[in-house]
Amino acid sequence: MCYPSQYQIRPPSQYLTALRNQYRSLMEIPSQSPEEEVALVPGTLLVHRGWNVREGGFLAAYSAPYVWERGVNEAVCKAYVGRPGLHGEAPDTNCTCGFYGLYDPNNVDSVDVRGVVEVSGRVILGTRGVRAQKAKIVALATVNPRIKARHRGVDYFDWPSEMEEKYPVTDVSALLKGRS
């Protein structure tokens, strides 16, 4: 059967490459001069993201081979493991590692489940989202009973709009002010 080009199914490797490129474009880091000091701000941020669902209700990242656990998840740079001389903690501005989250829930697409995560630790603020060292799922929009059984202690919503109303994203505009 022949489909128009917009309906052609891409191999998984091409699909993942396209998703990674999409998120890299969303995560442009605002420029700053080398002498400008980076502000350290204690606390956590709430951001949106999505997951694919694996058998048994496991939530998997769609651009990296990672399955999320209950509680706090900590990012490890796969490029660094076993290769001394590369950066240490994830995320790093010269790498793509870390847990991704978006400020605008409308930018979350191509996923099975949407949710809100609380990010902390080392966090890199981008123009449309963040990359973080630590992330914890706080809310999910799903009716899937397997996900609910696997991720207890999380708020569940039938509709993403209900979740977004209860868990608004942290406003980081003041932190990004003056950076273009």
Summarize the helices and strands and which ones pair or pack:
Blueprint: H1 12-26, E1 45-54, E2 58-60, E3 72-74, E4 99-102, E5 113-125, E6 129-141, H2 145-150, E7 155-157, H3 160-166, H4 173-176
Parallel strand pairs: 6-7
Antiparallel strand pairs: 1-2, 1-5, 3-6, 4-6, 5-6
Judged by helices, strands and strand pairing, the structural class is alpha+beta
Cα end-to-end separation: 48 Å
Overall radius of gyration: 17 Å
What is the average per-residue confidence, as pLDDT, rounded to a whole number?
77
Estimate the global geometry from the Cα principal axes: globular
- The ordered string of helix (H) and strand (E) elements is HEEEEEEHEHH
DSSP helical segment count: 4
Please tell me the total number of domains.
1
The amount of helix comes to 10-25%
Please give the largest β-sheet: 7 strands, mixed
Strand content: 25-35%
Low-confidence stretches: 1-13, 32-37
Number of strands: 7
Structure description:
Strands 1, 2, 3, 4, 5, 6 and 7 form a seven-stranded mixed β-sheet that branches. The chain is an alpha+beta fold and 180 residues long. It is 18% helix and 27% strand. The chain has one domain (46-176).
Features:
7 strands; alpha+beta; globular; single chain; 180 residues; seven-stranded mixed β-sheet
In short:
The chain contains 4 helices and 7 strands. It is α+β, with helices and mostly antiparallel strands. It has one domain (46-176).
